Amino acid sequence: MSEFDEIRPYNDSEVVPTLQRLLEDKEFLDTVAKLGLPKAGKYIAPLVRGLIRSRLQKETASIQTVADLQAKIEFYLGREINRTITHLSISGLDNFDRAKASLFVSNHRDIVMDPALVNWSLYKNGFTTLRIAIGDNLLTKPFASDLMRLNKSFIVNRSATAPREKLKAAKLLSKYIHHSVLTDNENVWIAQREGRAKDGIDVSNQAIISMFALSKPKTQPFEEFIREARIVPVTLSYEYDPCDTAKAKEIYQKETEGTYKKGEHEDVKSIAIGITGFKGCVHVHFGEPLTQNFENAEQVKLHLDKEIIANYVLHPSNCIAYEMLEKRSPKVLVGEKQIAFDTADWQAERKIFTDRIATCDPQHLNTLLKGYANPVYRKLSLTANAE
Fold it and tell me: What are phi and psi for residue 97, nearest 5 degrees?
């Protein structure tokens, strides 16, 4: 038994038994049926269970290893990327050594697509795939845990409540991440914060940096440990967020009512919408590894925040939302080609944006616009501070 067995991804020897277990899991089969037939309801799902199992058996018959599974996922992910993303651009892959594993820390906008797009960007350019951190709050069903761990995901214990239990879980996670990068030479992805940035403001949680350092030997200087960890900041920039109206509703209710209660399986629905919804142009930027002499976790957190904002690629959608709120055009650069927004004609993009937000509840509209405009405000603030 390994000390990491509770949280690690499954290995090749566990793939076939886990797939067989999933094919016998009625709840998993019913969930697949409901996702494929959302209007069918809970009464129809059991009736098509046999058909779903038969189809999945054919799909998984050739899968014997994790690599086999990822090749299958790549096919379906590629299909969704082609269908939902008009243009995917990538930059910064020359910033780090492809022969050595890295700890990629990215902003967090989508539950599945964030690590999937980072993974895709690396894999398609000759890098090894990622071990992906995923919170156990998303793994409320045993089949969900099985699915994630088959795809090189490891579990972040967020359900622990007692201080001693939380510290023990954090130490294990820290040790596993360090072991993955330095001993196994496996790339790792983790979000800069727990939960998505639903308001469009990308800010790192300092506790995550502190967690990394829990595996630091007492005699090792902090700055040396951070350099050794090979942390690479990653910025994901989506033109459109498939979950924008749902996020706006949640933020509005929290602001006006003080609380928001998630519906049953809401996270599963968010995952499905995030994968299948239209995203427009998407940019993935890989920053430079952290090699500076950082004295503490706060300095690392501030550096990550600055890098992620600086490398965020604004889209017309962000600037149009800013215009609607401020009644003026922002003086910023947009898109992969970095065009000055206030010098180009964006009428077509304005039509697409206004058509999109037309379905938003009027009460939530201002919140939705802020979600799109906040990256512009952050860019402008960064520029002003630099001057």
Answer: -80, 115
